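Hi R.,

As promised, here are both runs. First protein below:
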Amino acid sequence: MHSLQGLLAPFSTSRSGTAIRHLSDPGPMTMTSEVPVWVDGVEKWVTGVGRRTTCADLVHALLSAERRQTPSEHEVRAHAIVERWRQVERPLDPAARIQKVWRTWGEDTAEVRFTLKRVGPQTPKEVKAPRRRQRHRWRSSSSLEAVHPRKLGAEPDTVLRGDVVERLMQTILVQGETIAAQLRRLHEREDLIGYYEHKMHRMREDEHGADYLLRTYLRDGEPAEAEKASHDSGVGAELGADAPESPRRDVSEEEAVSDLRQTLMYLERIVELNSRIAEQEEAALRLGHRTRRAAAPTAEPAGELTAARAEVARLAAVCAQQTAEIERNERALTECERLLTERRHRLLQLERELDDADGETSRLLAARLAVAAQPGHQLPPPPAEPRWTSPSLPPPPAHTPAPASATHKDTSGGDGDSNSDTGLSSLHSSSDEAAAGYVLDTLV
């Protein structure tokens, strides 16, 4: 057991419950020197904790400070350091290094509490043989660490959704920490096995020489012993004649190695079982959520259905309004097309009437010119009232003949039409008719 400097002195007056610190070490507790432990509801600070300080050393120091005397070995084994995080407790292995466990929590050390508790029998009569007691201690610690966090924490009767998530996160964290602790323990056991094997190999080299393993394989008449030696790589190989001469401590070390191997096998099975339990719990939680959602539907679907119906009704009204407006637009467009067709027919009719009037005017002008060309013939005066030939145009106001100088048009650059707005055509006589003083006005 490693020596702890300053372990006993701080606990001599720690009954008041105040934190006690070593005066020579004011540094932070999470680094190297101080670890808080709760004993009977009182927080006490253990100073002088080194890198190799184990939980068994810490228990020994705490019991020595509490009882003012050195505790026996069975009393130390009957107590353990229990690691508490929120609602989860986990007893630590006596061989675990307390400083490494404390440093593993990192920023969550404020939520972690180490407590000294009794986990074994109180009297030596309840303790079995040493070998059996040691194996039972390993098995009990492993079984306690394998308890699922669901059974360690108190569960309320009605669990809300937030509590379920919190419990699931807690389960995951505890499982991860348990697996990490078991892996650390496996590595420690492997290191210990390697140490014992190397130590036994050195001891056999000192007793039988450096070539004892070769002589064991080459010896005739001992196949069983050679097979045994080859099975454990020379660690458990011994000559038949040398067996009675082996020291007692070799037998105890071999038993310890066997126990360690059995413990490793149990730990591997525990890790596998923990992973299976975690998977089954997650599947059960998901199935429970689905069952509750299917059995007790909330009012949200009804509200969503009502809103959807209202939206459909509003869209139907908007669609009907737009359809009516489209129909009105189609009727208006049809009416516009009809009016446009009528206007086009009317325009064609007016164009035909204009062509007929132009032809009639040309015919009358040609006849008048032919009459005027005869010698000694005088043209009759123009009628007082104009002659209307188009029934589609309203009658214009009374026409007053204008002077010849005002009504004469030059026909050299045009075709005879001078008024295109009212549809009237004014064709003037030639230069001979202008000299005679006659003006021909034809109103169409």
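And here is the second one, sequence first, then its structure tokens:
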Amino acid sequence: MSSIRTIFTLGTIVLAVAAFQSQAAGQAVPSDTTPFQAAEGNSAFFGYAGFVGDERADTSIPSPSPKTVVHQAATPSFTSYLDDEGPSAPGLVEAESKSFDDSCGVGKLGCDDKYCDSGCDSGFGPTLYDPWVTIEYMHAWARGRWLPPLVTTSPPGVDGVLPGSSILFGDEYVGSGLQASGRVSFGAWLDDEQSVAMGGRMFALEGDSTDFAAASDILGSPLISRPFFNTDPLVPPPPEDSLRVTLPAFRSGDLRATADNDVLGVEAFLRYSLHRCENRRVDLWAGYHFTKIDDRLNINHRMLQFAGPLAGTVFTFEDIFDVKNEFHGGELGLLSEVDRGPFTVSLMGKLSMGNMRETLTISGFSSRIPPAGGFHPGHGLLAMPTNVGTYVRDDFAIIPEAEFKVICRITKRLEASLGYSFVYWSDVALAGQQIDMSMGQPTVNASQLLGGALAGPPNPAFTGIVDTDFWIQALSFGLTFKL
């Protein structure tokens, strides 16, 4: 959730700075004053020129034709001003105006609401070079993340062993529900033809946190277990085993498991016009793409033995699987826009290619505190000396993305949009898949429990980072401010 707050805070700052600069630029000349009247001590030597849409225009003055340069009789005090090609008075039309590509079969660029060349005076001033800021709220769905069976319960005598027990947590995909997310885009045109622009985009998901908690009463009921396949050769068969967190009339306890996931993306891009007509354009999109996907699984439990030779002893266990995926690469794509009145249909497709760095940290902890005092540390259940550590792998990854939007121009400076987007990552490491499942369920050599020496196979084993694919799809509502 903090990532979304950061995204919207940054978007607000960008919007405020751009608005301040636009306001400062707009205060140079009042809207009802000619540039000549703006100079202190000067009075206008000709009337206010008429232009399209201005109800204050003096209609007695004929409008010049688009191909004619109007020369106003100049007083000596303004000769140098006109010779220096200063800004023309409102309503003066340049001898040449901008054009679309000849292949479009369309004449001059003209003065519509979206593309206005430097020879137009709309009453609002030129819109070229103007920056824009888009803030979007998104409802997102991510691909679920698989977790192995981690917590079970069963009737007395079964002890939570698999198969034959009920799975309370795990053996399922988590994190596939609806998430709030946000995206901020900003940029500016670099030329008066609106053919080149640069900008950036940032997005973040609210973050998924799947929690599970279970606890017994003071008498140890109900039974709560953590199942595993035991490869300790000193333990008689069957090898299907469990660590009983609670056991009626023998041990009480509680357990908590959390699976977290966060996604953040940043892009810097250039847009270049490949084809442009009166109501449509196709742009090349190229830039840099960064994505960070963090995934974490934490399981901890506490046990109090109140019967048997270890009565009064407190045990704690914790396993942590933490994965960080960082993608750095370039992106290339196409953006197409088609105008129909106040509406614009936008379709973008792009492909990012680069390096995905996967960093996995496995850590575990356990302790035994007898009633007489003392502290005896050890490792966890699924994280033992045979697999704990930090591991790094670099993979080539591709990230295709598609986006569809319908945009409505509300005012000259404000647009609203509805859209759908889909992003796919080809290589991502997720925490639940880093657990040793070599025997079909979490695999552990129990000889290492509570700091014991290894006897037999080195399980849980680390044989390399396991990765999979990942995707996010989202519906979006956005507002674009043109400043």
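A quick note on the second one: The CA atoms of residues 46 and 72 lie 8 Å apart. Let me know what you think.

Best,
J.
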